[in-house]
Amino acid sequence: MDKIIVYVDDAAYAQRQLAPMLGSVGANAGTGGPTQWVLVACAPRVTHRISKWVTHSARENWRMGWADKLFSQLVPALHRQGDSVTPILARGPLPQLTEELKAQHGTRRVVDARRPKFGHDLPPISANQPADTQGRWSLSGAVAGMGVMLVLAGE
């Protein structure tokens, strides 16, 4: 049985990323058997302003509801003939969770299907993942260019 750990935070984006793996040749081409999907939901962070007014249990309930909604959109697409899905809600640092899941499930295949956010670097999912050097600074060049254009247009 082929085992794949998949990190997700947006159902539509994850479905587009996983579509090539779900084809007829798909992820289990080498084994010929079913695939076990370990689906890890990475809930969005609650801002500091909101966290001051909401209790810890209310935040955890919101995270669980958010994860249930995400899983209800993704799990049916991942269930195929004999495939199984293990849903997990991520808590704590992702590199540590990745190592625990690798040891627990005996797999080396990890897929990062989280939606990239403009101007925001996603935390790495493993210790040896290369850092993204483009994400944060791509916005400031555009803003500087617009500022120069506005100054020139004003003169």
Q: Could you describe the 3D structure shown?
A:
The chain has 155 residues and is of the alpha/beta class. It has a single domain (2-154), classed as Rossmann fold, CATH 3.40.50. Helices cover 41% and strands 16% of the residues. The protein has helices spanning 11-18, 48-51, 56-78, 94-105, 138-154, and strands at residues 2-8, 35-41, 84-89, 109-113. It has a 4-stranded parallel beta sheet. Helix 1 (11-18) packs parallel to helix 3 (56-78). The mean pLDDT is 78.
Detail the topology: elements first, then pairings.
Elements lengths: L1 E7 L2 H8 L16 E7 L6 H4 L4 H23 L5 E6 L4 H12 L3 E5 L24 H17 L1
List the uncertain runs. Answer: none
How many separate structural domains? 1
- Total of DSSP H or I helical runs spanning 4+ residues: 5
Largest sheet: 4 strands, parallel
Please tally the β strands and state the result.
4
Task: Please state the overall shape, judged from the principal axes of the Cα atoms.
Answer: extended
* Class of secondary structure makeup: alpha/beta
- Strand proportion, as a percent range, falls in 15-25%
